[in-house]
Known about the structure:
By secondary structure, the protein is an alpha+beta fold. The protein is built from six helices and eight strands.
Amino acid sequence: MQNLELKVRCLGAATLQQVEALACSAGAAYVRTVQQRDTYFLAPHTCLKLREWWREDDAAALTGVAEAAVNQAAERPNRGQEVAEGSRERGREGAFLISSRRQERAGAYTCEYLVYPVSEPAVLRALLSAALGVLAVVEKRRRFYRYGHTRIHLDEVKDLGSFVELETVIDEEITPGEASAEHSALISLLELDRLPVVPYSYSDLLSGHCD
C-alpha cells in the first residue's frame, strides 16, 4: 500500500479543536477515538513498529465537535458503512505489526507500508525487543476522521504535544494525480498550510533522530 502523507504541529489543544471543526465543516466523517501505543524497533532496513490500540468512543471521551460528527454520520448510513469497511481497527482493541518506508520531501511525503494483524502483541513485543532492541515507544490519543480517500488524524502525543496527520491512500480507486489533488485541497480546507510542517515520525522526535 502507498500513502501521500503530511504531519503538522498544532499550537496547543485549541488549534487541534479548530482543525477538527474545519474538518467537520468540510464534510469529513468521524470514525473513532482510540488510544495507541507504538513500539518502534531498531530494524536495519525499514521502519518497524508494533501498534497496540484500544477504543475510547464513549460519550465522555467525545468532544462537542466529534459528538456532532457522530450524529451527522448516523444520518448518512451508506457513508458510515464505507468508513467501517475501510477500517483496519475493528472491535474494541487489537494490534498490528507495521513495516514502512518513507520518501521525504518538503511538506508532504509518500509512504509505502505493509500491515500484519497480531493476536498476541505482548509476546511479539518481547520477542522483537530482545532480537532487535527498542528505538522508542510512542503513546497517543487519536481522533480519526475520513474525507474521501484521506484519513485525518488528530493526535495528542505524550511528551510531544498536538499534531494533525493526513494520509491519502493511493489504490486502485484513485490515481496518484487524483490523490495529490485531494491531499492539496484538504490542506487548504483545514488551513494546515498555516502550521509548521513536521517531516519526521513521532519516534524520530522522541529519540532525537531529526537531523
